[in-house]
TrEMBL record:
GO terms for cellular component: cytoplasm. Its EC number is 1.5.3.24. It is found in: Cytoplasm. This is Sarcosine oxidase subunit beta. Its main location: cytoplasm. It catalyses: sarcosine + O2 + H2O = formaldehyde + glycine + H2O2; sarcosine + (6S)-5,6,7,8-tetrahydrofolate + O2 = (6R)-5,10-methylene-5,6,7,8-tetrahydrofolate + glycine + H2O2. Residues 25-69 form the Rhodanese domain. The keyword Cell membrane does not apply. Signal peptide: none annotated. Keywords: Cytoplasm, FAD, Flavoprotein, FMN, Nucleotide-binding, Oxidoreductase. Belongs to the SoxB family. It comes from Georgenia soli. The lineage of its organism: Bacteria, Bacillati, Actinomycetota, Actinomycetes, Micrococcales.
């Protein structure tokens, strides 16, 4: 398929049924994680009497608003394991789903600008190697060879002192990923129900038995939450709390340009990351806005600082025209790691807290979450990411790898 061609209109890729009276599993949230979970429930576990409920349109939340970076070079063993599983699934996803998602393994550079950056980055590279993750430390000259348009001069605020490099990392077309999962899940018998907001839950003692929605009550043998930043709201409706805070996260794109940026560049120190999409627009992001909120917009000063950093690193961008900006809602835990597992409510499960790394985890998180739902027990990949770790103190502190939007 030519990269400028559009796929078949998504309305024709899956059925849009009326909700049934009850399902074996009801998944709340039809973003990447919810759709992937439904697909793997059907494919891996034979559970097809599944409904995925979405209050708006399918994949219209963070799945439509992220910057599509995919990588697995996280510091701690637990994080590296689940993100590496996701990356391995990404590598075969087009063939498995039978749909073009434009997964491009163009590599990701994480820049270091200070001596402490260098120490932390080298430490992460060595940890990655111990976990079988492809990672290497490269000097400024090698950075320039991989990304010729980057400024490695010593006359900028934060000169480039080197970078970590993961060659297998890259990007994909986010909408097409969602459509691919939705199409295959629908073919396997999953009901995808849009414009159906969950307003409450029904219980029999400590066990959840269904959901109250704007389209009526729906019975459920099991309920799985996959609503990103709004998971805390749903959890409170169910009578428990999750330790997440929701923040706006902004991104922006430029007008179309010829392809000049061959890889993905991230800089935690100056809070900017840049890639170039398949059609030619520059896709950029920064850190989260500091305040809590559910607004899909952000502060202008974040954009201004982001642009200043981008133009310093990439002088060629100085005359590019900004086309549009937007915001999403990220759910951040205390240790910058997700929560995937059981909840205090019997037969209710939670998948949230991915912060700025939700898109890259879609296949791996959906795969492990489906196992958890089907067996009422976590998979070894997501067992460390339980709610109990906030009581036991077994935190997975990934702030060093995930403190900036990426």
């Amino acid at each position: 398929m030519n990269q400028r061609e559009l796929p078949e209109h998504p309305d024709f890729l899956w059925a849009n049924p009326e909700p049934k009276a009850s399902y074996d599993v009801v998944i709340v949230g039809a973003g990447g994680h919810g759709l992937a979970t439904a697909y793997y429930l059907a494919k891996n576990h034979g559970i097809t009497n599944v409904a995925v409920l979405e209050r708006g349109w399918l994949a219209g939340g963070n799945m439509a608003r992220n910057t599509t970076i995919i990588r697995s070079n996280y510091l701690w063993d637990e994080s590296a394991a689940i993100y590496e599983q996701a990356l391995k699934l990404w590598e075969g996803l087009e063939d498995e789903l039978g749909y073009d998602i434009f997964f491009s393994q163009r590599g990701v550079l994480n820049l270091a600008h200070t001596l402490q950056d260098v120490r932390d980055s080298v430490r992460r590279v060595e940890a990655n190697r111990l976990n079988g993750v492809d990672a290497e430390w490269i000097d400024p000259k090698q950075v320039k060879e991989i990304c010729p348009i980057i400024n490695i001069g010593d006359d900028i605020r934060y000169p480039v002192m080197g970078a970590t490099y993961q060659p297998r990392a890259g990007i994909a077309k986010h909408d097409w990923v969602a459509w691919a999962y939705a199409r295959r899940a629908s073919e396997l018998g999953v009901d995808l129900i849009q414009n159906c907001e969950v307003t409450g839950f029904t219980f029999d003692g400590d066990r959840v038995t269904g959901v109250e929605t704007t389209r009526g009550r729906i019975g459920a043998g099991k309920v799985a939450l996959a609503a990103a930043g709004h998971t805390s709201v749903l959890a409170e409706l169910a009578g428990f709390r999750v330790p997440i805070q929701s923040h706006p996260l902004q991104a922006l794109v430029s007008e179309l340009h010829e392809i000049i940026h061959p890889t993905v560049v991230m800089s935690n120190h100056v809070h900017v990351y840049v890639s170039q999409a398949h059609k030619g627009e520059l896709v950029m992001g920064a850190g989260i806005d500091s305040y809590n909120g559910y607004g899909q917009r952000g502060s202008f000063h974040v954009i201004e600082e982001q642009m200043a950093a981008a133009v310093e690193l990439f002088p060629a961008f100085s005359r590019a025209h900004l086309l549009r900006t937007w915001g999403g809602i990220v759910d951040v835990t205390l240790d910058a790691s997700p929560v995937v597992g059981l909840t205090p409510v019997d037969q209710m499960y939670v998948n949230c807290g991915w912060g700025t790394g939700g898109f890259k985890a879609v296949p791996g998180a959906g795969w492990a979450y489906a196992h958890t739902i089907a067996n009422d027990e976590p998979h070894e990949l997501n067992r460390p990411f339980s709610l109990e770790r906030f009581v036991s103190g077994a935190l997975i502190d990934e702030h060093g790898a995930a403190a900036v939007a990426h």
